[in-house]
Amino acid sequence: MAAKGTRPAYRCTECGWTTVKWVGRCGECQAWGSVTEVGAVSARTTAAKSVERPAVPIGEVDVTRAQARPTGVPEFDRVLGGGLVPGAVVLVAGEPGIGKSTLLLDVAGRAARGGEPGHERRVLYISGEESAAQVRSRAERIEAMARTLFLASETDLATVLGQIDQVQPELVIIDSVQTISSADVEGAAGNVSQVREVAASIIATAKSRGIAAMLVGHVTKDGSIAGPRVLEHLVDVVVQFEGDRHSRLRLVRAVKNRYGPTDEVGCFDLSDVGITGLADPSGLFLSNRTAAVPGTCVTVTLEGRRPLVTEVQALVDQTEMPNPRRATSGLDSARVGMILAVLGARAKAPIGRKDVFVSTVGGVRITEPAADLALTLALASALTDQALPTGTVAFGEVGLAGELRPVTGAHRRLAEAARLGFTTAIVPRGVVGGGPVPDGMRVVEVATVLEAVTVAAAPAAPALSAAVR
């Protein structure tokens, strides 16, 4: 009988979890196909090797090699930290059909035209999902044609590396990493081993030659990047492409960035003629009407470091059904349910036998608690059928006790609201902190939900007070 220590062991290549028998799914990180057999650990020694590039004092290191070069798309450069660094590898992740290929083709065209006349940048676009003719048709439609933009439709890794050798590009785009496969690795394209091999080869080529590389990656049903988790650790920048398919708005945010901040967000407008950066996207999230309407309130959210003025709409209607409806669009349903409970318990608002519908304007999705106060005021306005005063914004977090809590970035929110012409801001007490208030902006600090509802009602205060007390 073999000794217990000689039994074969299997280890997960993602998290290091070990087991004595092979399983298809890791018991620790739940990754599929990542458990492989490992041999006995043996001690190894490595002899010293001659150094081809000796170490130099840190003050003599050439920093120009790490300077970012703009891509020609300002909103994308904002997220990347100024542009693409030679040798950097960027992973762009997003759901299928969200617009990743359109964005990167626009980046490829602008980057190719971004050089000086006669010294344009050479860009190689590798498409593993579409033919070169299909890519050209899209490039003509979005005006991404360029003389030094090269297209190739390849799915073999060796051929892709050969294309890079022949074109000698400054930027290479792989669309997508799940469609490329290596003949030296078993399995179909897109599995764990293939994705790891393809990514490692592209990264090694980009680092050794100083080529900026962008890899397109699909996401799974739960929103995580498909493929091995180690892929996110190998690349320099991970960019998430988000948006609702029924809306034209697209958001690009950096999840990981070795060359810049991870709290920047780029906004784009996706249409039939291409994708356009939005330097001032706040207008997309506001209604075009001029008269005040009950059930609406404007708030200021922070996407990274960028303030966005967004309108929240609410509709409250009487129902005879035993279970009133609670429908939401663009807001967290659990958060809406909590606000309704606070209004009913702390402000005595009669909402128990009423249908409630809540939505945002422009298809934007609000996740931060700073929109709680605006949602509360919109619901109170819809309940009493009294519109809030024109030019009013509100932001603040609502607690279960009915208290209002301060939120971060208050001064940036106030400055953005004042820039768009709003004159009154309802905020929790202490949120301003004695700092400067924009000219023409009146800040009203409140402590509780009931106080905020009463202040916001203004001329309709008697009717509103009677409804919520």
From TrEMBL:
Residues 355-469 are annotated as: Lon-protease-like. Gene3D superfamilies: 3.30.230.10, P-loop containing nucleotide triphosphate hydrolases. It holds the Pfam family ChlI. ATP binds at G94, E95, P96, G97, I98, G99, K100, S101. Residues 65-219 form the RecA family profile domain. GO terms for cellular component: cytosol. One of its GO terms (molecular function) is damaged DNA binding. The middle region has homology to RecA with ATPase motifs including the RadA KNRFG motif, while the C-terminus is homologous to Lon protease. This is DNA repair protein RadA. It comes from Knoellia aerolata DSM 18566. The gene is radA.
